[in-house]
Amino acid sequence: GRIEIGVKRYGEGAKVRLKIKVRDVDPELVIRELKVEPAFLKVELLPLPNASVPGLYDLLVELPKETQPCAHRGDNMGTIHFDFDHRRIPKLDLLVDFSVRPPQELR
Question: How far, in Å, CA of 53 to CA of 17, rounded?
Fold first, then answer.
């Protein structure tokens, strides 16, 4: 339940790509709602096109390069919450651990 982006320098940004496998008779996930905190994180859940096995998804999480210095670690981690229209998988909650250091001239 945790995505570790780590410590990044201002202007560096980061992209994380994870695979999700739905092991159910119904492998399709339909997103009802997506909540992301902090809101500047970009999150997408995309079915893998032409996957040989049904129920494979890419979870893409992007920390934009223009993200201002911040700390979302420990008790202040970012969060990703999916509500799905699926009878056995109603939701997915993930924590996102990251921080952005200020530019060197501001230290």
Answer: 18
